[in-house]
Amino acid sequence: MTFQEQFDTIVQNHIDSLTKDYLLVLQERFKNEGLAMMNDMLPQPLIAAMSAEAKFLLSENAKRRDITIKATGNTPRNFNVVSQDSIAENGILIPSFFKSEVILNFLTFLNNNEPVHRIPYKPEEFIINNQQKAGDTHGWHWDDYTFALIWVIEAPKEGEGALVEYVPDTVWDKENPESGLKEVLGNREIKSLYVPQDHCYFMKAGTTLHRVTPLKNDSRRTVVVFSYASQEDLAKNISHETMGEIYENSKDLVGV
Ligand SMILES: [Fe+2]
């Protein structure tokens, strides 16, 4: 058996052990709120192993970003990142998670059985983000692709910031990002979610405006973000202005 086959077998056995009722609640939540959180998509030892891998990659390969992104309406990014190529080269579990057919099938189930696909753009497949200084934030934006699965590896205590704030069923106006953003924030209810360590959340990130609020103190919020595509995404020619600015290794960024 290859490593990937072993990984998939372990995950499939685990998912098969979850109750149908619980899974239907998650599916319903994803449909209604554009976001579903869980702490048991993987068996606990695998969560611990993936977490250890993410922390190791972060300690070895992190790059600091302190920038504002024009394409999302000049919102800030102040955090450390590990790019896809560093993770692909030095990681095992995170790439296996992304390649897993079992995970894709599970996410497809959560998406009301509408297909969820791997994205056709390597730099955005998986990345690690880490906020650690007071004020570190991942400012308002929509993702390029329809879905994101975010694993929270480290989280500050509740009340110390790094909340997920989000507005479901909204559209990124790429022609007028700043006024589009203001309009959504001025007119829509902003939902807020504290996601504890070792939980993950699946989000309709392409149609849900979202951010991670600034840390109130020096502490740590570390996530592994996986991006996935809808059937529709695969037919479109999706541009990647944001990702290029944040994650490309080859680029030396002003203000970094
Ligand atoms: Fe995002």
- CATH fold call: Jelly Rolls
| CATH architecture call | Sandwich
| Total of domains | 1
Structural class: alpha+beta
**Mean pLDDT, nearest integer?**
94
Bound molecules: fe (ii) ion
Strand content: 25-35%
Low-confidence stretches: 250-256
Radius of gyration: 17 Å
Number of strands: 12
CATH level-4 homologous superfamily = q2cbj1_9rhob like domain
Concise summary:
The protein is of the alpha+beta class and 256 residues long. The protein is 37% helix and 26% strand.
Q: Keywords for this structure?
A:
Jelly Rolls, alpha+beta, disordered C terminus, 256 residues, globular, binds fe (ii) ion
Report on this structure.
With 256 residues, the protein is of the alpha+beta class. The protein has a single domain (3-247), classed as Jelly Rolls, CATH 2.60.120.620. Helix content is 37%, strand content 26%. It contains nine helices and twelve strands. Strands 1, 2, 3, 4, 5, 6, 7, 8, 9, 10, 11 and 12 form a twelve-stranded antiparallel beta sheet that branches. A hairpin with a 5-residue loop joins strand 2 (63-69) and strand 3 (75-82). Helix 1 (3-17) runs parallel beside helix 6. The protein starts with a helix and ends in a 9-residue tail after the last helix. Residues 250-256 have low confidence and may be disordered. Fe (ii) ion (FE2) binds next to loops.
Q: What secondary-structure arrangement, pairings included, does this model have?
A:
Layout: H1 3-17, H2 20-33, E1 35-38, H3 44-61, E2 63-69, E3 75-82, H4 84-90, H5 93-99, H6 101-110, E4 116-118, E5 126-131, E6 137-141, E7 147-154, E8 164-167, H7 177-187, E9 191-193, E10 200-203, E11 209-212, E12 221-230, H8 231-235, H9 241-247
Antiparallel strand pairs: 1-10, 2-3, 3-5, 3-6, 4-12, 5-12, 6-11, 7-10, 7-12, 8-9, 8-11
Helix pairs in contact: 1-6
Bound molecules: fe (ii) ion.
The site of fe (ii) ion has 5 residues, from loops.
